[in-house]
Design goal:
With 443 residues, the chain is an alpha/beta fold.
């Protein structure tokens, strides 16, 4: 398989900073050989896998119809504007994940379908995003961007390591891919030559190079460059403000004020802000082709997150912070539905960002596949004989949305067949993957 190397023209450079450029009609930004009077090549396909733990309110997880006429259940309602780009997949599952019937054993092979080891041993399988990172992703600065909004849990639950509940991306069968929870460090990894805090703004470092570039590109590309630099500045400022607060989210303090010094850089206390920042980083990573593959774990399975930012339906006048998400998922009430919708709102936020970025004849959303999944259908039942899975985007014209595909009563319902189909759209074609031996023809 051939992977091109990037030319210097793909980047803005400054001291300690390498900042990739978005697609432009007048610049060979993505490693093309210079061609007189010819536009740069089409954009590549990108993949983003998002995950939320503890399943959904199943009676409202549904879709029917097709195209603009597709109807969506209440959980998916935030994605209404993208229903013609939505593929709703029903009935697929992992046979190996059904053997433990506990959160850890159901999540550790979410993206691999591999057998899960118990009894103190850590063994799963290389996830399909990392197989892509090791092949398709090698032509980018960051082969894969692995993000999370809830920290890893190192404990053990019913003989299974909770690391399985905390990681969906695995670089090898025994190595969960390290999670980046801090937006500032994820930003550094995308744009700085060394992923460490620095006093100087990324944009300030590359300003002279950007001004030189601007003089030699078309008016349309000048606008695109300005919009891109503005979006990077906005993310940079928001990360800076979040870091100044120096607060961690995901746990409830037992003191009225801290009894230790605040860290200089931190995770936003507001979970919605944290998730949106991570979505922004995925969008910028894709827009600049700094990375083509990302996973974003919104929370763990068996999650301890609370949602004080969401007003409670069940407890008027309060936020949904009276119960951790894991316990909330067992209630299956209106507040659980509201949190489900909150996760889908983050997905819609990312889709909206990508749809606003034009890459030649298509948008960035048209060139991307966003798969959202959970490792069970309903938290109260732990049922994973069919998993909730949707795919948004167009994979550069290779994926048709606005469809419902139901495999519930069909043979060969391996979820890994979907992964093989998605890898195929990125020109990576293993003969088998996990427990699957063939792709899904309908996808």
């Amino acid at each position: 398989m051939h992977f091109h190397r990037f030319s210097r023209r793909a980047f803005l450079r400054g001291t300690g900073v390498t900042m990739a450029l978005p697609w432009m009609e007048s610049v060979n930004v993505w490693g093309d050989e210079p061609k007189k009077n010819k536009p740069a090549s089409e954009a590549p396909v990108r993949l983003c896998v998002t995950f939320s733990g503890n399943g959904f309110q199943s009676k409202e997880w549904w879709a029917k119809g097709e195209g603009k006429a597709m109807e969506l259940g209440k959980v998916l309602a935030p994605l209404h504007e993208f229903r013609d780009k939505l593929l709703f997949v029903r009935g697929l599952y992992h046979e190996e994940a059904r053997k433990g019937n506990i959160h850890s054993s159901q999540t550790g092979n979410m993206l691999s379908g591999a057998p899960i080891a118990s009894g103190g041993e850590i063994r799963s399988g290389t996830s399909f995003d990392q197989l892509l990172a090791q092949t398709y992703g090698r032509s980018t600065k960051v082969p894969s961007l692995v993000l999370a909004c809830e920290k890893s849990n190192p404990s053990v639950h019913k003989n299974y390591s909770m690391l399985y509940s905390s990681h969906i991306s695995w670089s090898s069968p025994t190595t969960p891919t390290p999670l980046e929870l801090y937006p500032a460090l994820a930003f550094d990894r995308l744009f700085k030559d060394e992923a460490s805090p620095a006093d100087k703004s990324v944009l300030d470092a590359v300003l002279a190079d950007a001004q030189d570039l601007r003089r030699g590109i078309s008016a349309s590309d000048q606008r695109k460059l300005d919009e891109y630099l503005d979006s990077v500045r906005d993310v940079e400022k928001r990360i800076e403000n979040a870091g100044k607060r120096g607060e961690l989210q995901g746990w409830r303090p037992t003191l009225s004020k801290p009894n230790i010094q605040r860290p200089a850089n931190g995770i936003p206390q507001d979970i919605g802000e944290h998730m949106r920042l991570m979505m922004d980083l995925v969008a910028i990573g894709f827009q600049t082709d700094t990375t083509r593959i990302s996973t974003l774990k919104l929370n763990n399975d068996h999650s301890a997150l609370r949602f004080p930012n969401l007003p409670s339906v069940q407890q008027a006048g309060h936020g949904i912070d009276y119960m951790i998400h894991h316990l909330l998922s067992h209630s299956d009430g209106e507040d659980y539905l509201k949190v489900n919708q909150f996760f889908m709102e983050q997905l819609a936020y990312l889709a909206r960002k990508l749809a606003a970025i034009q890459e030649g004849p298509r948008t960035l959303l048209d060139n991307t596949m966003i798969m959202h999944c959970s490792s069970m259908m309903v938290g109260a039942k732990h049922n994973n004989d069919e998993l909730p899975v949707i795919v948004l985007g167009g994979a550069a014209g290779r994926l048709k949305g606005g469809r419902v595909i139901d495999y519930k009563d069909k043979p060969d319902r391996q979820l890994c067949r979907l992964f093989m189909s998605m890898m195929d759209k990125m020109d990576v074609r293993p003969k088998t993957f996990g427990d699957a031996k063939q792709m899904l023809e309908e996808v």
